[in-house]
Write the structure tokens for this entry.
Amino acid sequence: MRILLVEDDQKIAAFIQKGLKAEGFAVDHAVDGEDGLHLALSEPYDAAVVDIMLPKLDGLTLIESIRQERLKIPVIILSAKGTVDDRVKGLQAGGDDYLTKPFAFSELLARIQALIRRSTDQTEPTRLAVGDVSMTLITREVVRAGKQIELQPLEFSLLEYLMRNAGRVVSKTMIMEHVWDYHFDPQTNVVESRIYKLREKIDKGFPTKLIQTVRGVGYVLKPKI
Amino acid sequence: MRILLVEDDQKIAAFIQKGLKAEGFAVDHAVDGEDGLHLALSEPYDAAVVDIMLPKLDGLTLIESIRQERLKIPVIILSAKGTVDDRVKGLQAGGDDYLTKPFAFSELLARIQALIRRSTDQTEPTRLAVGDVSMTLITREVVRAGKQIELQPLEFSLLEYLMRNAGRVVSKTMIMEHVWDYHFDPQTNVVESRIYKLREKIDKGFPTKLIQTVRGVGYVLKPKI
DNA sequence: TACACGTCATGAGAATTTTGCTGGTTGAAG
DNA sequence: CTTCAACCAGCAAAATTCTCATGACGTGTA
């Protein structure tokens, strides 16, 4: 497994490089954005760890450039800033995960492994997008129109299922099977009530509503004014 | 799809038969246990719906006989009695699901479809067993030593994951990935605390303990005094 | 248009699950 | 054999999710 590390702080870089090598990864280290971009475009990496603050070319621009070249390597963003806005920007630029300094090495490792697992498994995307809503599966973050939306675990699973089936009507039974893992009708209205909560967060205040109810059938995720 | 219906009450039988035919199933109807067993052993069915109270041969014995012949057709038990003890007996005899009269036809249909889906998908079992614990996935019921154990949804998922990996040590990270769908360390002790709850229900009061902790590694499900 | 019926949205209260903490165990190193 | 740090059980408080009752809405019928 080859990892590209783009980090100008020598101390942090050494710490990460050492840890990853001990775990059996081959690590290439670039000290500035230009160098990093060059390496990313010329060598085949399984994942990249990119700092935001970099000399010559900043991390966000670097990631955008990589994505413009249609490269799908999973990218983990490192940053000293942990504000919501920074995370949103990072994930929008095309990052697959976001880690705030300082962090435990074990956490970086876990995330790299999670990303590599996902990306080698061709059937599993790391992000989903419908209309102006995008979802980062690893960090479980959802952004609509540049604004981060806080979802509860079940609300996230529900939206994920709707997004994976965007444009298709999904019945409440199907939703229950996939989101709740119930294989028979529990005779309650869990789905309806959770859809209501999700709508409050994802649709309320936006001009176009995404969650449509199809009477007697189920729900669809589709932009509609 | 061929369904075997074993039911002596003509009215109920007609009601079920009519409904299933309307849904496109081919239904064979036996009016007593002997007749039902004979049909079950001679024809290939995709599922069976069996009443408990039957002339000549009762439903439970019928199911046990079918299972002794190593037949794996999914069986739904119908019964007027809905006590916990009856359910336990039914599921222990080898039933895959249990429905108490009176029931809505839509519920019977949903359960038949769920069972057929599971059984045609060869990779998906409908029941799991380790030591004296058995788990019915469709009804989400767990029985240890003939005693039904009430589990919460998450406790059930956790036990299910442990049972699917019985004898193998599973790390807390793996448990989190599969049961909670967390792909990185949330830095909490959710797993530990849920294992504790599960132990209280599944191991407390029994001479052999099933859930073993393997220090520094994770947990195993394995019978041990 | 008015009515009846089934489906769906809504919100409050109950139940479950997670979090965060405390003190007790365990096992390795010296 | 002792010390220390990591790990774990156990519990209570906080957060999330489910349940249940009620009213709104849509659809077909007279």
